[in-house]
Amino acid sequence: MATGEELRGLMRLWPHGVSILSIDVEGDRMGVTVSSLVSLSLEPPLVGVSIGKDASCYELLRSAGRFAVSLLGAEQEELARRFAAGYPPIVHWQGVPTREGAVAPLIEGALGWIEAETHTEADAGDHTFFIADVLSIEHGPSHHALVYRESTYHSV
Ligand SMILES: Cc1cc2nc3c(=O)[nH]c(=O)nc-3n(C[C@H](O)[C@H](O)[C@H](O)COP(=O)(O)O)c2cc1C
Fold first, then answer.
1. Is the pTM above the cut of 0.85?
2. Which end of the chain is least crowded, N or C, by CB within 10 Å?
């Protein structure tokens, strides 16, 4: 069997789009930078996202049962860095332009937004893969996606 380091070593060469997943449980808000967002099915519309079991948002995400994803535009690298930095939630959101989505805050200026409701949590080693029904889709003003490859952000 291959090692996790071997998997990481190859996948870091493979470009991934960058999003911020957000959660709101009665005003308790968290956000985390993710590159694991994937479109899984069109009929019904399903997305998936893989979240580390040690991530600080993990338990809140499980209890929320729903989440939003802001697909970042190329100009939003600073936000990607901020929400990956492991700051306390209050610091994450300070000065970030957001608006209220149906289930969680949406980050303004993004390429687009997805809101979703978890229907399956699949155990995936040190992560859980959340499969979710897409509740809403919206396009944003950004025209270039923020992409991560080899620990560097790029515009595509
Ligand atoms: C570009 C990028 C993509 C990431 N994608 C994921 C992801 O898909 N799932 C995940 O659990 N963590 C992902 N992370 C890590 C989290 O953003 C975060 O750094 C980690 O959860 C540690 O912060 P915490 O201690 O607040 O949980 C990613 C980080 C970066 C920089």
1. yes
2. N
**From CA 38, how far away is CA 5, in angstroms rounded?**
22
Domain topology for 4-155:
Pnp Oxidase; Chain A (2.30.110)
Residue 103 identity: V
CA distance 107 to 113: 8
- Taking a C-beta distance cutoff of 8 angstroms, is the pair 37, 26 a contact? no
**pLDDT single digits (tens) 50-70:** 999 999 999 999 999 999 999
List ligand 1's pocket residues with C-beta within 6 A. 18, 32-36, 50-52, 55-56, 84, 86, 148
* Residues 5-27 pLDDT 10s: 999 999 999 999 999 999 999 99
